[in-house]
Amino acid sequence: MPNPESPSPGAPLSPVPARYDYIRDGAAIYARSFAIIREEAKLDHLPEDLRAVAVRIIHAAGLVETAEHLLFSPDVGTAARNALRAGAPILCDAQMVAHGVTRARLPADNAVICTLSDPAVPALAQDLATTRSAAALELWRPHLAGSVVAIGNAPTALFYLLEMIAAGAPCPAAILGFPVGFVGAAESKDALATNPWNLPYLAVAGRRGGSAMAAAAVNALASDRE
Ligand SMILES: C/C1=C2N=C(/C=C3N=C(/C(C)=C4\N[C@@](C)([C@@H]5N=C1[C@](C)(CCC(=O)O)[C@H]5CC(=O)O)[C@@](C)(CC(=O)O)[C@@H]4CCC(=O)O)[C@@](C)(CC(=O)O)[C@@H]\3CCC(=O)O)C(C)(C)[C@@H]/2CCC(=O)O
């Protein structure tokens, strides 16, 4: 029996305002967001040159507590900024990371490279008995020396990068490690943070991560303007 007080199907439950009250100016939204993050996030334990990077990573995920879970080598800010200014390519594990990099922020019109969709990758993955994300790194070899690596999705890509370096591949200038999820993400970032080659790194510990965080880290390191 229909409730006589219920609105008829399709009728709005409450009147819809003609105009909602929200900020419409993009720059004002960013400024307000960053002000809220600086008010709420604990940043004091971070080196001065990573605080703006942390703010942008937090902004990408909406998680202020991320600041407390950042893993980093003290030299990563300088290493990544210097490499980017010198024109280093940015090597991304996923197209989502590559697409998130704001080209206008890049100091040297840096190449942004993601090899995941290369037609050679599925066969490589089969030969190497691994994921496409990991196998795609085989195509990074000519670009690896002095690059900035941004991993935002695949734990297997971060593990494979460390295995390539252990086997003698050239070292990147800095590794931004933000693989996400429940299988291998925490472990791959622990491996990065304890790498025996003193590779400069920035990562977020545990299951947290994602392409947006990785792209945000690149964007922050590429340009100091908010
Ligand atoms: C196991 C995988 C995981 N993927 C996750 C999260 C997301 N992945 C998205 C998309 C669209 C893609 N993921 C692939 C990279 C794909 N994902 C995997 C793999 C099976 C293995 C990676 C690994 O474990 O290291 C991987 C395929 C592979 O063989 O490498 C993707 C290539 C799959 C595809 O579309 O073919 C694709 C990447 C596309 C790109 O280039 O950008 C999601 C958007 C899925 C969704 O929600 O629909 C999401 C994005 C997360 C992000 O921020 O990047 C996990 C959670 C990382 C998961 C691994 C761990 C787990 O706990 O399951």
TrEMBL record:
The keyword Secreted does not apply. Keywords: Cobalamin biosynthesis, Isomerase. The keyword Isomerase applies. Pathway: Cofactor biosynthesis; adenosylcobalamin biosynthesis. It comes from the Bacteria. InterPro entries: Cbl_synth_CobH/CbiC, CobH/CbiC_sf. One of its GO terms (molecular function) is precorrin-8X methylmutase activity. One of its GO terms (biological process) is cobalamin biosynthetic process. Pfam families: CbiC. Gene3D superfamilies: Cobalamin biosynthesis CobH/CbiC, precorrin-8X methylmutase. Signal peptide: none annotated. Residues 29-223 form the Cobalamin biosynthesis precorrin-8X methylmutase CobH/CbiC domain. Belongs to the CobH/CbiC family. This is Precorrin-8X methylmutase. It comes from Nitrospirillum amazonense.
